[in-house]
Amino acid sequence: MPDHPLRWGAEALWEQLTPQLPGLSVEVVARISSTNTALLERARIVTPPAEDGDLAQVRRSVESTAFGRRAADLQPCLLVAEHQTHGRGRQGRVWQAAPGASLTFSLALPLAPKDWSGLSLAVGVALAEALDPPRSASADSTGQGTGTGTQAGHRVGVKWPNDLWLLDGQGGGRKLGGILIETVAAGTRRLAVIGVGLNVMPMSTSDVSTGYACLQEIDPSATAPGTLSRIAKPLVEALRRFEREGFASFAQAFAARDMLFGRPVLTTHPEVPEGIAAGLAPDGSLLVRTDQGMREVGSGEVSVRLDPQRSTP
Fold first, then answer.
1. Going by C-beta distance under 8 Å and a sequence separation of 6 or more, which residues neighbour residue 41?
2. 3-state SS string over 131-162?
3. What is the pLDDT of residues 103-118, one digit of tens each?
4. Among 43, 142, 144, 187, which one is least packed by beta carbons within 10 Å?
């Protein structure tokens, strides 16, 4: 835990992001149950036909208070929590975090892509590239990614469908962060809530089967506020790009950081218990090579993990 108050620069974040997110509010709270849950509930209490202009707004530039805070609306909101007491991961898993040692936030914004497939992967790519910028060596002579994050020389890989891992260069690694995306119909819009949790500092953990990795392992000066400042704009840019172009424009960058590619995996899909991860189908489903041929695994309620009993072919 930090021995001094965190300085988040809420107003600076607002000024940085509001050109791409008109109507944005930036809020920092010391403690909350779940930032995703809070924003989803806020969207649900807006009663049509309220217009955007009807929503009260108070702007402040005091640390740890809201800048442009609103009690309820459908406009963009960046909600940061120094401590989430009931942070949620995919499939209802608990996200372990500690004040100062973790960065936990949610970004809510209206999105209208033609196809929602692959959104969590696009977000993962954007975060990974912001934290671990692409290297020129990550492309081969054809300009295509090599297919795995470790081979490409990256330190941060993306694990299908929504995790960031710190790679160890030996075909494995430890979990660095997670992404939870939820949507809600709000009036005539659909609001997407993108929740992000990143480990920033070393922290004692228990029952973490994926291991624990933190940003200070690759950047000893990393802090939660500094990390947010680093990734916020690239995240917003990626979401707008996804809305325009879909996952196709992220596919090559994902392939360069796909930590499962070519590796033995176990899945909870009843028809695909094991196999070799083989990249993605056009809709973002995981391709798994099995004894019965190539199979597709959709994200849904399926879990996929590396098979510790089998070596990479």
1. none
2. HCCCCHHHECCCCCECCCCCCCCCCEEEECCC
3. 999 999 999 999 999 9
4. 142
